[in-house]
Inverse folding.
């Protein structure tokens, strides 16, 4: 068996590693994140119109969209004396990821540079989401329910994007015709185990910090 044939045999196979499933997961996660971004934008406008009115997602002192929305972290981009809510940028970013997922489902071939930039864009979106969530948890000391949904949706989106980049786009590429360690990682479904642990760790951190107060 040649090296190329051996490399092909080590390639992840099965429905879970096919572009249809991977990009469908990404599409669902991105669509949820886009929907939440629209809701947060609407809530931000509602708070601007009625500053003294509670929002629908104000559950208690800890689960409070208003507290988070009134913090400086919710509007970090300022230009010309105006500030822009993060949710507005979320709409723009998630619209792009929805489009990318649709392109993947349509089996449209994209340049390697585009796939690489897409992955780094997903990483930036994840890092930004985690920074905002950490600010809510440890600085603002309040959690926005919609923001939590957005964080988990962005996490699943990045998981699917990484899966697609490694398995569908086959990046990073081969060296001397040999496959990469990523093939073993996905072929043996290690990624699924890591993803489950990843989500559980996020849940544990939230519950450890604010668990009792969430249900008051």
């Amino acid at each position: 068996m040649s090296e190329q044939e051996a490399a092909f045999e080590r390639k992840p196979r099965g429905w879970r590693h096919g572009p249809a499933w991977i990009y469908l997961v990404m599409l669902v996660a991105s669509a949820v994140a886009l929907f939440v971004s629209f809701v947060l934008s609407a809530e931000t406008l509602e708070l601007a119109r009625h500053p003294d009115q509670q929002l629908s997602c104000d559950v208690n002192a800890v689960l409070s969209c208003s507290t988070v929305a009134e913090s400086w972290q919710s509007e970090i981009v300022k230009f010309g004396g105006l500030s822009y809510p993060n949710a507005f940028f979320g709409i723009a970013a998630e619209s792009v990821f929805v489009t990318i997922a649709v392109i993947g489902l349509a089996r449209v071939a994209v340049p390697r540079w585009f796939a690489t930039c897409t992955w780094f864009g997903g990483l930036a979106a994840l890092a930004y989401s985690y920074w905002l969530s950490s600010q809510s948890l440890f600085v603002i000391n309040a959690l926005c329910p919609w923001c939590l949904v957005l964080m988990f949706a962005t996490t699943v989106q990045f998981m699917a994007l990484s899966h697609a980049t490694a398995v569908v786009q086959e990046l990073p590429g081969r060296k001397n015709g040999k496959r990469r360690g990523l093939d073993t990682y996905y072929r043996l479904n290690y990624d699924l185990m890591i993803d489950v642990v990843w989500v559980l760790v996020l849940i544990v951190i939230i519950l450890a910090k604010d668990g009792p107060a969430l249900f008051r």
The first helix runs from residue 3 to 9. Helices lie at 3-9, 19-49, 65-69, 86-105, 112-140, 145-168, 181-187, 190-214.
